[in-house]
Structure formats: C-alpha cells, structure tokens
Amino acid sequence: MNEFGQGSAAGVRAVDVVVIGAGQAGLSAAFHLRRTGLEPERDFVVLDHAPRAGGAWQFRWPSLTYGKVHGMHALPGMELTGADPARPSSEVIGAYFDTYERTFGLRVHRPVDVTAVREGEGGRLRVETSEGGYAPRALINATGTWDRPFWPRYPGQETFRGRQLHTADYPGPDAFAGQRVIVVGGGASGTQHLMEIAEVAAETTWVTRREPVFREGTFGEAEGRAAVALVEERVRRGLPPQSVVSVTGLPLNDAIRAARASGVMDRLPMFDRITPTGVAWDDGRTVDADVILWATGFRAAIDHLTPLRLREPGGGIRVEGTRAVRDERVHLVGYGPSASTIGANRAGRAAVSDIRRLLARSPEPVA
C-alpha cells in the first residue's frame, strides 16, 4: 500500500477502493474486487468496526438458531453447507464468514471505526478512521443498519419504571420469564420475539402501528422482483429505504398460525402514551407492563458520509443501481433493495463492475 503524497497529511494511504463493512454486502464486494484483479492491501482495503467476523449476525440473540433464519444466501464463491440448524445463527454465520475471509485472503481490518468520509485531494476521497486515513479513488459503503436501532418517541416514555430495550439488545426469551411484556413492532423480529417470550412470560401484549399483513402461499421470483422494485422506487426518489419485508408481508407459517389461534398474536393499535406502569390509549384503555420491547427496526448507518452531502431533501441517498447519484465514486451496497442477502451479493458484483469502469476511465496521473 502506498503513502499518498502530493500535499496530503503524512500517514494517509492511497488505495483504489475502500470497502466499509464486512457483512454480506461488504464481503461480496471484496470478493468481486479480488476476482477482477485487485489485490487486498495493495489496491483495496476492507474496514470493519466489529470485533470479529460475522457482520451483524454475530450480535444476534442465542435463541435465533440457524434453522430459524429466513433466506440466508451463500456468499459468492463458497457455499455454506452442513450447518446444524439447532446451533445459534451467530455462531454458524460467524464461522462461515471467518472461513470465507481466510479462504479468499480478504485481510479485513478490525476493529476499525470510520468517523468520516470527505472530499480529498486530486480527485480522491478521504476516509478518516481509528487506524489512520485512506485516500481511495472509489468507496463501497456496506455498513448496513444494525448500528442504528430506531427508537420511536412517545409522551411519558421517560417516566416508565420498568425496562425498555430494543431488538438490538434482545437477550433471548429467558430474560422475560414471569414478566408482563409489551412487544412493539409488526416485522419479522417483532413476531419472533413475541412468540418466544409468550412461552415464558406472565403476559404479552402485541402493539403495531399498522395492521399486520400475513402472506399466504409461496413467495416466488416474480413476487420478489415486485417487492424489490417498490423499495428501489423509494431509493430512486431519494427517500429513506424501507426493508423488503415491509412490502412483502409476514409469511404465514405453522408457528404463526398456532400463535394466532392461541391469541398470542391478537394485535392492539399503537398506544398514545407511556405511563410509569405501562401504556395507555386515548380511549381509556391501559396495559400494565414490566418491559417494553421495541422491535421497531433500524435505519441505514450512513452518518459518516454526511460531509459528502449525498442526502436528498427526502432524507435518503438517491442511488442508481448502487451508485450515489451525487457522487459516482461512492457506491452503497446492502442499502434499500440490496439489503437482503441475495440482494447484497448482486449489489457487490454490480458495484465492482461500475467501479472498474470508473478506474479505467480515470487512470492515475503520471508522477
């Protein structure tokens, strides 16, 4: 790796590409960078703030076993085979990602925090990190959402005398034994939490902003393309992305059918305020609780890109494919429509293809 001179601060190193994040999308991008002839350390670096391999999967709760994971798609070039469905997904996928990184020699730097990406010198970007600066010609941002849990705000929230936590901090159902628990959120995580906790809690209450939509039958390729197209349209308009599952609905499997039949999934509309002992609605209804669990999703972790001024008035970053419309050097993978595991693989390949054309079109100046 070469030190970048020409007036830059000492210690800033020049590379062709910096990849931020080593989850599914980041590793896919790194694989395709290497496959097209770029070398780790010499031509590109992968930076990851997590303590070990596994992306966001390493932080999942122990009761989320591999057999409960929906739609985990293998990384390019290496299948995940022979995994024990009863083993925690954090262990299975963490080990798989670790093997993948070593097999392809991706040499991920961790733990490294990226604090800001700015305009650099000579047409390069400047990536500021906890291990020093980088000056890439292009950037692949694959930071996902796990680091930005979304906590809604409701009147009286600070007065609640019980415990409040988010999916990001969910420890598994045993921590709620004998307690009265309100689960907020109608997505996949919220329903999983609710069904697990109901088996050990004294009482559960399920609250969602919108009436949950359950999906009957198979979900084929055509339905998948239609769902992704809806998410893509938001991103294309510069709006913050929604998850693909938000437009597909919840799969109506045997576990959910049983939970609905037993009354566990009798849903209440969103409460109007939080009280010291629970929650309340304006119609006079109240529910007492020991715990409020916010399964309210995540937002894209892209604050480090703020200096580049990529956001649109709608609050999101407008992208075409994976490329940021406001800066062709910046690609976002695992963002919006590519947030699924198979989408992340495709986005990594597409971003690298675009970046290779950019690098070829803008060769390094001769010293």
What does this protein look like?
The two termini are 17 Å apart. The chain has 7 helices and 19 strands. It is 24% helix and 22% strand.
Tally of helical segments: 7
Provide the low-confidence segments as ranges: 1-9
Helix content: 10-25%
Tell me the radius of gyration: 22 Å
Shape by Cα distribution? globular
Mean pLDDT: 88
The helix-strand sequence is EEHEHEEEEEHEEHHEHEEEEEEEEH
The percentage of residues in β strands lies in: 15-25%
Largest sheet: 9 strands, mixed
> Could you give the count of β-strands?
19
Q: Give the terminus-to-terminus CA distance.
A: 17 Å
Task: Please summarize what this structure is.
By secondary structure, the protein is of the alpha/beta class. The chain is 24% helix and 22% strand.
Structure keywords:
single chain; 367 residues; alpha/beta; 9-stranded mixed sheet; 5-stranded parallel sheet; 22% strand; globular
